[in-house]
Design goal:
Radius of gyration of chain B: 14 Å
Number of helices of chain B: 2
Strand order of the largest sheet of chain B: 2-3-1-4
Number of strands of chain A: 32
Oligomer: heterodimer
Strand content of chain A: 15-25%
Largest sheet of chain B: 4 strands, antiparallel
Distance between the termini of chain A: 41 Å
Shape of chain A: elongated
Largest interface: A-B, 15 and 16 residues
Radius of gyration of chain A: 38 Å
Order of helices and strands of chain B: EHEEHE
Structural class of chain B: alpha+beta
Shape of chain B: globular
Distance between the termini of chain B: 12 Å
Number of helices of chain A: 32
Helix content of chain B: 25-40%
Largest sheet of chain A: 9 strands, antiparallel
């Protein structure tokens, strides 16, 4: 018994098989986490090596170079970059995407083990750190307080960050900007000098007085008691009464020489949110955790924890990456729903039957939901790629069902009983249904094999569409005939309403197919002109559109977030930065009404704060985070606002460097052109870089241009004279420690309260460490107790520290990065900078290369073009084996160039750039544009075999097949329209895909509907003539047989 | 006794079997999925890509008095849906065992 008969005869089994698939899919859907993009495993490993006391150049030669030479041989390495600065070398190894990072880490570790002995003595152990986009903060909160401001750090630590860090998937929770309590002992240097005391002595005296000590046990009678001395300070005030020394036989109390301040640490990062000072809580997730799930968990916990906080402490969200993800996924869900409705409508209009429409449309949810089982089983997520795959597939899954149903209907119309018709009709078309599915698989299965970044992105798409195709074909061959057999009626009775609705549609379609028949008739009788017109159309559009086609890597997504980093001249005091921050805050909140949350911070980050200390920080650096809210709620795009801010900052003369970044890191930010200048000579490199930067700044194509090399940092160097020190009996370490303790302070003990420890820091009062003279006047004590001032044994000089030395692929490198302005694409920027490079005088030993997005784009496009070639070959192979002919599929392949015509027209008219999403659209097109050709040629062959003449066969086949072709093409094209015109959040990412497929398929269908029958008529006529010639040449037995 | 040979579109099987049954003729021999072509207008039924439809054929030997009824019923069936195709032939049987 055939598969078709058994499925028609076993409705329960068939139904339950598909219900099971659907249930598993729904189960998977409920469990599936969501994310913006498929998860990309870390592809970066950093190696930190410290070598104290060495300057940048020393580190470069002795540490970075040595490590680079060895690590360069690690396999799958794409780039190796290094940063050498004072005391530390940071090597960054960038690997190809999609490799096993653990294996790479082991490789790196082995190599480090090998090279260790070649490093200079005193070098610290190199340590390895894996880094990926997944390590970016996922949630930033702000905490503001009124009365509790001083205790905010402790409150947050006890009641918020510690419990939040326990939430499943949370990596680290760090707080910046919360004032940290510290007991500060501010001494006055002149009093110290008068009493002959030192900072160290005071710090030591406090430590000596602040002790709890167990003294052992004693036996009293039959009991044992432990003896303990408990004299730790209970309040900071107690310290003022301790004796720090004797002078002239009198005790000197701490209060005589110092003031005690139970206050907050100096030099902390200050954070302001919406104008109010408070703390910033930054949450990072564990690398493999899902951001949306983690944030959900954190928010749930937060709701509980907020109740336990003092009533004046308010928690607000500054940045929540899940907002954007959820909104994007929602807008895609909406798109999928609209697509579904559109496709159902097309099917209904063409078939005019409720039941038939229901049967066809039913296969959509089953196939879509069924494919989710794959996502769930492989631990993937619902993301832009997998959801677009679903959306793309909707228009295509119905094709098989339509073909089957159409044939069943024609059998029923002939009078067969539905059950019988279902079996036989399905059997008739099964081969062509399977063949067309195979052509689709020829497109989508290779997608699962791409490597690199494109591979990481599009493997899911390949799998999902392949699975959907397989499920939908199975449904078309089993479920559809089963349901048709049961639901369709032999003699349909049309209601009046039905007639009213469908008579005009039917008439219209008939008129269309008659008109089309006439057109084909003209075309096959004017073959040369038709082919000529097609060629003209192809080349004219090529000439008109190709020069205007722009390319990019990934579209810029409007994520509603800006991060701004402003550098004032190095060495600018915190007060100036603060003033600027307040000024900008006022200005921006006034002129950018879109701002929802405005957060800024400045100052030196606490070393314990993992995230903040990794970023640039300092008294001269101001970092801002602006949340502009969802793009649906505002008129201006994030890009427009970013450009406004950039223009504003450009005109601000006190700012030395600024960077405005759109998005939240990772993909979908603004396109940028990164120029890398390789060469050894520092000043030459600076000159070339500066020249390129100047040209780029002047161009309207770049809204921001950044130089990677920092300025020289000003410092005071205390240059001790060893001889003079020795004469006074002081060694260098003692002298240096003295200076450090007076400026930075000496911490020898902690003040303990409620289980927490606070530093007790002894140092000069702030007014005594304000100038160069203050440093010079620091008192050192010689071996005989004589007073020696710093200026007597040292020179305090102002110096400049050279910046970090950057290297890439084992050569010194400086980079200039320009952000491409609104209205220009990456390719415009690249073309422009290529011009600048040609104009700039680059010394022969230097090399300038365009990297960054452009390099990624080149790599991805190279992969995808290879794939395109492979797909075209595979599609041809599948068709050739189906037709058992080499020429017929070749004729069908003529629809491919017109798909490119359509893509070019579509992208240029809608002013979009060809990025990787559009490239994927092109790949998909290869599979779908040939489908119409297959249907046409297949039916023409049939008509010929049924004895029609060439032209008659071509015209009849074209007329006959117009309806199914229009129907499947319309479902696919209309299925793409919601993607193409999407305006929801994240839509920038998939509009180019929708535009590509919709335009490519429409144009290709319109042209191939005429061109392919004509070309095929030419092929058939030549074949016929050949056969005739053969027949006339027949001799002997052949001739006798032919005439029998 | 008369012999009746019916060649028909395979979708007719149930109907043909029913007609025989109703005319008290239980026995028949059937060939499944066979090819054929009509003499005048009938489309070929070859079961290939060009002519995908297949025929069945039934050979039944019926009582003399039933044969007319059966032939009439088959003709009626054919005239309702002539596109499917059904032909029947009846002849006299000389001997049977």
């Amino acid at each position: 018994m055939s598969l078709y008969r058994s499925s028609v005869n076993n409705p329960v089994t068939v139904t339950l098989v598909f219900v099971t698939i659907a249930i598993m899919g729904v189960f998977g859907l409920m469990k599936l986490p969501i994310n913006l993009l498929p998860s990309m495993e870390a592809n970066t490993i950093m190696v930190f090596t410290s070598y104290s006391g060495a300057n940048a150049a020393d580190i470069e030669t002795n540490v970075s170079k040595v490590l680079e030479n060895t690590l360069n041989s690690v396999s799958n390495l794409k780039h190796i970059t290094s940063n050498s600065k004072e005391n530390i070398s940071i090597i960054t190894l960038e690997f190809e995407y999609g490799i096993d990072i653990d294996e790479a880490t082991n490789d790196v570790r082995d190599k480090l083990e090998m090279v260790k002995s070649y490093l200079p003595e005193g070098t610290g152990n190199p340590f390895i750190f894996k880094f990926s986009m997944e390590d970016m903060p996922i949630l930033m909160l702000s905490a503001t307080a009124e009365e509790s401001t001083n205790a905010l750090d402790k409150i947050l630590d006890d009641k918020l960050t510690t419990p939040l860090a326990r939430v499943n998937g949370v990596g680290t929770v760090s707080v910046s900007g919360a004032p940290k309590r510290e007991i500060q002992i501010f001494v006055e240097p002149n009093k110290l000098e008068a009493y002959g005391l030192t900072v160290e002595a005071i710090s030591g005296a406090i430590a000596a007085e602040n002790r709890n000590l167990p003294a052992g046990n004693i036996d009293v009678g039959s009991d044992t008691y432990s003896v303990r001395i408990q004299k730790e300070f209970e309040s900071a005030g107690e310290m003022s009464d301790i004796v720090v020394g004797m002078f002239n036989g009198k005790a000197v109390y701490l209060k005589d020489v110092a003031t005690i301040n139970d206050g907050q640490q100096e030099r902390l990062q200050s954070a302001f949110t919406n104008g109010r000072q408070g703390a910033m809580i930054i949450i990072q997730k564990q690398t493999d955790a899902n951001a949306v799930e983690v944030i959900k968990g954190v928010k749930k916990e937060l709701a509980k924890l907020e109740k336990g906080l003092p009533s004046d402490v308010k928690i607000n969200t500054i940045m929540d990456t899940s907002d954007n993800i959820i909104n994007t996924i929602n807008s895609l869900e909406e798109t999928i729903f609209i697509t579904f409705m559109l496709v159902a409508l097309v099917v209904f209009v063409f078939l005019g039957r409720w039941r038939a429409t229901f049967i066809i449309v039913l296969s959509i949810p089953i196939a879509l939901v069924g494919s989710l089982v794959y996502l769930w089983a492989t631990g993937n997520t619902l993301n832009i790629i997998s959801m677009s795959a679903l959306s793309i597939a909707i228009g295509m899954v119905v094709d098989d069902a339509i073909v089957v149903l159409e044939n069943i209907t024609s059998h029923i119309d002939r009078g067969a009983k539905p059950m019988e018709a279902a079996v036989h009709a399905t059997q008739e078309v099964s081969i062509s249904v399977i063949a067309s599915t195979l052509t689709m698989l020829a497109v989508f299965l290779p997608l699962t094999m791409v490597s690199g970044l494109a591979g990481v992105l599009f493997q899911q798409l390949g799998w999902i569409v392949s699975i959907i195709m397989i499920i939908s074909t199975s449904a078309a061959l089993t479920l559809v005939p089963m349901m048709c057999g049961r639901m369709m009626k032999l003699h349909k009775s049309d209601s009046k309403f039905h007639k009213f609705l469908f008579t005009p549609i039917d008439k219209g379609l008939n008129a269309l197919s008659n008109g089309y028949g006439r057109l084909i008739n003209w075309a096959v009788t004017h073959r040369k002109s038709t082919v000529f017109i097609a060629i003209i159309i192809f080349f004219v559009t090529l000439v008109l559109t190709l020069p205007r086609l722009k390319t990019e890597f990934v579209p810029n997504m409007d994520q509603g977030r800006l991060s701004i980093t402003i550098n004032l001249p190095v060495g600018t005091g915190e007060a100036v930065t603060k003033e600027l921050a307040e000024e900008l805050y006022k200005k921006y909140t006034d002129s950018i009404p879109e701002i929802v949350v405005f957060n800024y911070r400045y100052g030196v980050a606490d070393e314990e704060n993992a995230f903040a200390s990794m970023q640039n920080n300092g008294t001269h650096i101001l970092s801002m985070n602006i949340n502009l809210g969802s793009k649906m709620t505002r008129v201006r795009s994030t890009q427009e606002i970013a450009e406004w801010v950039r223009r504003d900052l450009k005109n601000n003369t006190i700012i030395s460097k600024y960077s405005v970044t759109e998005g939240q890191g990772g993909m979908g930010g603004a396109s940028s052109v990164k120029l890398e200048i390789y060469g050894y000579d520092f000043s030459e490199a600076d000159r070339v870089a500066a020249e390129l930067q100047r040209q780029m700044i002047e161009s309207p194509m770049f809204s921001q241009v950044l130089l990677s090399r920092d300025e020289y940092t000003p410092e005071y160097h205390v240059d001790f004279d060893r001889e003079k020190l020795m004469l006074n009996g002081i060694d260098l370490t003692t002298a240096a420690t003295f200076v450090r303790n007076r400026i930075n302070g000496s911490i020898m003990t902690y003040f303990r309260e409620d289980g927490d420890e606070y530093n007790v820091r002894v140092r000069y009062a702030p007014e005594y460490r304000k100038s160069k003279e203050d440093i010079e006047n620091i008192v050192l004590y010689g071996s005989q107790g004589q007073v020696v001032r710093v200026k007597e044994v040292a020179k305090v000089v102002e110096a400049l520290t050279p910046p970090t030395i950057e290297r890439k692929d084992r050569e010194r490198m400086v980079s200039v990065t320009g952000i491409v302005a609104k209205g220009y694409a990456l390719s415009d920027g690249v073309a422009e900078t290529e011009k600048y490079i040609a104009q700039t005088d680059v010394p022969s030993e230097f090399m300038v290369k365009i990297a960054g997005d452009y390099e990624n784009q080149k790599d991805a496009f190279a992969d995808l073009f290879m794939l395109l070639a492979l797909i075209i070959i595979l599609v041809y192979v599948v068709m050739a084996s189906q037709f058992e002919s080499l020429v017929d599929p070749f004729v069908i392949m003529f629809s491919v160039p017109f798909a490119f015509t359509g893509v070019l027209i579509g992208l240029v008219t809608s002013n979009m750039a060809l990025g990787i999403m559009a490239m994927i659209g092109v790949l998909i097109l290869m599979g779908i544009v040939v489908k119409n050709g297959i249907v046409l040629i297949d039916y023409t062959i049939l008509c010929r075999a049924r004895g029609m003449k060439v032209n008659e066969a071509v015209v009849t086949a074209s007329k006959q097949r117009l309806r199914p072709i229009l129907m499947t093409t319309l479902t696919t094209v209309l299925g793409m329209v919601p993607l193409a015109i999407g305006t929801g959040e994240g839509a920038e990412m998939w509009t180019s895909l929708g535009v590509t497929v919709a335009w490519g398929l429409s144009v290709s269908t319109l042209i191939t509907l005429v061109l392919i029958p004509t070309l095929y008529a030419i092929v058939l006529s030549r074949r016929e003539r050949k056969e005739q010639r053969k027949a006339t040449k027949l001799t002997g037995n052949d001739a006798i047989i032919a005439n029998l | 006794m008369k012999g009746i040979f019916v060649a028909y579109n395979q979708a007719y099987f149930m109907e043909v079997a029913n007609i025989l049954e109703r005319h008290n003729s239980r026995g028949f021999t059937r060939w499944n999925e066979i090819n054929g072509r009509g003499s005048e207008t009938g489309e070929p039924h070859y079961g290939d890509h060009t002519w995908p439809v297949m025929n069945d054929a039934i050979l039944s030997f019926v009582a003399d008095e039933e044969s007319d009824g059966i032939m009439e019923a088959l003709h009626k069936l054919d005239s309702i849906t002539p596109e499917l195709g059904l032909r029947a032939f009846c002849w006299q049987i000389e001997k049977s065992i």
